[in-house]
Write a sequence for this structure.
């Protein structure tokens, strides 16, 4: 588009997965920040693992306490009672420690995810405007909510399993070797089969789970757009189309989700099949060795239990593989945003809002939002301190782009913009933007009180200063008629106010900010004539002794501007006063005649 940034272009659906190993390393670094919780979890898991390893050995001792003696059974009751007591103690302690393990895992997951979510939000707040303009807002919110929540669930449910797996496998292998190396070898036969099955299945599963998360982000983006633009959808009777588009995305998500869950669901039964085969093999070989007198029946029982413990970690990971892949895909999407370079802070020139005078100079500006689609061509403009400059032109001519460049929401392709003789690229962005206040056509209000929305212009302002700003903006009259006055809580985007009232609050916010440079971007285009009169009076007071750039479609609102700049197709077509431009009978004259003839510009 000529006068604004490009919209979303479906980048999310084309997103390719990042390196899984790299994503896992970053997740581990996040988890490792909470050393106390992590050490506590490790300690509890170590004891739980040791107790679980002791269980089968104790069962073997209990069984071997009962031995055949001729035609009768010989039972060593003292030994059996001691072993059973030890077993009871082991199982009770294991249950108690497992409970604490769950508490530590839950705390670790929530603290880790809180840190990740805070880092993500901090990065979103520092992203370049270009990134926000070219990505679906709903998809960004999906990364903050759905993707991070998937990571949280996986950490709380799988972290203990992943950590204990290593301890369990190592301990079980050590004990089994102590009993009988041959039986240990038989127990390990199924391990290569399990690893091979996991590798083969993961190739299919990963692709679907990454795409599932991308489609979920796209679906959230569509919902956010339809809810935000609900009135427009209703006004144009596009409800059925909105439903069709939703159904299409939802259908794609359903199909992808089914494939992901099918492949994910196969892993558990497949691992159980392999585990049961190993169980049968151990029973057969163990029975033969017992008949030969190499091992006892208790040892066979121990190996049956230890083989389950040995393969259980692999089976558990396989059963949780679908969830782990979902979390990995979500983490990749979160890290993709975190890896986006933040907006640079600008230069280090010693410029502060207090020292800014307001002289502006646009010199040979060329700019494109997209390569090959240039918006401004050799644009030039000189503005002196305190001047009121109006910028007019047809829709898409590049008027708003001038504002985007001055505030450094975007940077010029070539040329330079100077403030008081200093290139704005050399000025810290924070200082530059605090020197500028913008009143937009589409006002931005927050779900807070009226006073808080005005105070957004200067957070340290007193209540009396807020009231003075409201009076200067001619907003005090309607504010005092609200149910709670300045303490009235606004609904989302100020939906419980009229368009004109929202605009007056926006002007009051700018008055309170007390900027050196004021930008009015179509500030009166969406209000009635009477409200426009109030806004005009407020703007006259606001623009006094300030450098002002007024972007307007209503030419009647800029007659008293010091100079009017007409932009046509990204170029300065002509400049002058209202009377001078009318006398030239050029672009401005045609705009003026078309507007007052009732034609659409």
């Amino acid at each position: 588009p000529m006068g604004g940034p490009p919209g979303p272009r479906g980048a999310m659906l084309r997103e390719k997965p990042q390196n899984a190993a790299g994503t896992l390393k970053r997740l581990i670094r996040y988890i490792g920040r909470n050393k106390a919780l992590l050490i506590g979890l490790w300690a509890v898991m170590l004891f739980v693992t040791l107790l679980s390893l002791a269980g089968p050995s104790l069962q073997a001792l209990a069984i071997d306490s009962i031995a055949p003696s001729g035609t009768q059974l010989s039972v060593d009751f003292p030994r059996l009672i001691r072993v059973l007591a030890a077993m009871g103690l082991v199982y009770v302690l294991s249950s108690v420690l497992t409970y604490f393990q769950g508490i530590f895992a839950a705390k670790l997951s929530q603290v880790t995810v809180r840190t990740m979510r805070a880092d993500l939000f901090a990065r979103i707040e520092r992203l370049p405007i270009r990134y926000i303009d070219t990505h679906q807002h709903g998809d960004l919110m999906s990364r903050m909510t759905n993707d991070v929540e998937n990571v949280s669930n996986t950490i709380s449910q799988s972290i203990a399993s992943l950590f204990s797996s290593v301890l369990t496998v190592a301990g079980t292998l050590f004990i089994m070797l102590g009993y009988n190396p041959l039986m240990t070898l038989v127990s390990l036969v199924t391990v290569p089969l399990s690893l091979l099955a996991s590798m083969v299945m993961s190739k299919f599963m990963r692709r679907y789970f990454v795409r599932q998360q991308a489609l979920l982000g796209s679906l959230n983006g569509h919902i956010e757009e339809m809810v935000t633009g609900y009135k427009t959808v209703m006004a144009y009777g596009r409800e059925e189309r909105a439903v069709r588009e939703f159904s299409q995305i939802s259908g794609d998500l359903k199909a992808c989700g089914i494939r992901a869950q099918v492949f994910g669901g196969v892993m558990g039964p497949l691992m159980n099949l392999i585990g049961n085969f190993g169980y049968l093999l151990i029973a057969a070989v163990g029975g033969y060795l017992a008949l030969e007198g190499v091992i006892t029946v208790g040892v066979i029982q121990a190996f049956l239990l230890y083989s389950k413990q040995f393969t259980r970690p692999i089976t558990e990971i396989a059963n949780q593989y679908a969830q782990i892949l979902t979390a990995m895909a979500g983490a990749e999407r979160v890290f993709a945003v975190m890896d986006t370079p933040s907006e640079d802070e600008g230069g280090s020139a010693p410029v502060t809002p207090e020292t800014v005078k307001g002289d502006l100079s646009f010199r040979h500006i060329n700019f494109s939002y997209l390569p090959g689609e240039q918006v401004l061509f050799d644009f030039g403009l000189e503005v002196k301190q305190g001047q009121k400059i109006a910028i007019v032109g047809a829709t898409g001519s590049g008027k708003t782009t001038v504002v985007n460049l001055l505030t450094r929401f975007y940077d010029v392709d070539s040329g330079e913009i100077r403030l008081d003789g200093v290139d704005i690229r050399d000025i810290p962005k924070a200082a530059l933007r605090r020197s500028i206040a913008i009143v937009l056509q589409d006002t931005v209000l927050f779900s807070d009180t009226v006073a808080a929305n005005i105070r957004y212009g200067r957070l340290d302002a007193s209540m009396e200063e807020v009231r003075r700003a409201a009076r200067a903006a001619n907003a005090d009259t309607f504010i005092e008629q609200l149910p709670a006055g300045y303490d009235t809580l606004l609904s989302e985007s100020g939906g419980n106010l009229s368009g004109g009232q929202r605009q007056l609050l926006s002007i009051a916010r700018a008055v309170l900010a007390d900027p050196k440079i004021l930008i009015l971007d179509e500030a009166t285009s969406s209000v009635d004539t009477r409200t426009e009169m109030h806004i005009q009076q407020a703007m006259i007071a606001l623009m006094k002794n300030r450098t002002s750039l007024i972007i307007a479609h209503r030419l009647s609102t800029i007659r008293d501007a010091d100079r009017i700049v007409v932009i046509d197709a990204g170029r300065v077509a002509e400049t002058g006063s209202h009377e001078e431009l009318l006398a030239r009978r050029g672009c401005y004259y045609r705009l003026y005649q078309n507007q007052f003839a009732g034609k659409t510009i």
Summary: The chain has 20 helices and twelve strands. Residues 190 and 278 are 6 Å apart (CA to CA). Confidence is low (pLDDT under 50) at residues 6-17. The first strand starts at residue 66 and ends at 69.
